[in-house]
Amino acid sequence: MARPAPLGKPAPPRYGRSMSDIPQKGERIAKVIARSGRASRREAERLIGEGRVAVNGRRIDSPALDIGPKDRVTVDDQPLAAPEPPRLWLYHKPPGLVTTARDEKGRRTVFDALPEGMPRVLSVGRLDLNSEGLLLLTNDGALKRRMELPATGWLRRYRVRVHGTPSDERLAPLREGLVLDGERFQPMQVSLDRQQGANAWLTVALREGKNREIRRALEAAGLPVSRLIRVSYGPFQLGKLTSGAVEEVRARVLRDQLGLDAEFRPTDKARPPQRPADRPAPRRRRKPPARG
Q1: What fold, for 156-233?
Q2: Is 278 a catalytic residue?
Q3: What is the mean pLDDT of residues 245-253?
Q4: Which residue is catalytic, options 128, 256, 261, 268?
Q5: Is there a common fold for 19-79 and 88-152+234-286?
Q6: Which own/partner pairs from 71-78 qualify as long-range (CB within 8 Å, at least 24 positions apart)?
Q7: For 93-120, what is each residue's pLDDT tens digit?
Q8: What is the CATH number of domain 19-79?
């Protein structure tokens, strides 16, 4: 019987590497499985732990393994599908959906609501149950992590309706940075758009978002939030995308904004953070699913 080919190169013992840290000749086994669409990275690690993954005919039990393009990977004795290149979609999330793959309370998720024909995707960041607006979706875990890093320097901009009358005095703690329940919030950009009777519309921008950060900060200022809409994430904008609709970002635009080459590897030509007003090139649109 032929002997199994040697395994891929053992991975360094360090976890949480960025895209630029990944060796060009090898990728983490769980990432390769995730890129094929077979499972998420976390699910791939579970499959590996259960002994259901083999590399070059040999079962593995640890995800700490980098493999190269010549290595043969199977899951449950079935070869992986060829990986797709990284892709990015803009999704107009309606309120009332949770941004998680599964919800322990049985609530409907954004992934339940996506149009038919969408591949398996991950969300870049989250929007809470009652928030709406721009949610980025990708098929690539490394791209997701890269875009979520505060070091990317991208502003996330929101339109927020509050109850009350905002004043510079009330908004000063948000602009200067505040601490709530022992958690420090970075300074936000906050401007008053208009006052409508007992309510007001604000524009709020921040570079990193903690759980319900805007709602919590404004409530602490005596301005409870009644509506929150994300309108941009870095150079990517909600624009006129209708609620429930999806648009794919062109590969060229995606590479340009993230400083990636034609093979989606990091280059030294990453573009500086852009204002949300800088609109990318047109994208393909998917219609929202029919409402039942």
Answers
A1: Alpha-Beta Plaits (3.30.70)
A2: no
A3: 94
A4: 128
A5: no
A6: 71/5, 71/7, 71/8, 72/5, 73/29, 73/32, 73/33, 75/33, 75/38, 75/39, 75/47, 76/52
A7: 999 999 988 888 899 999 999 998 898 8
A8: 3.10.290.10
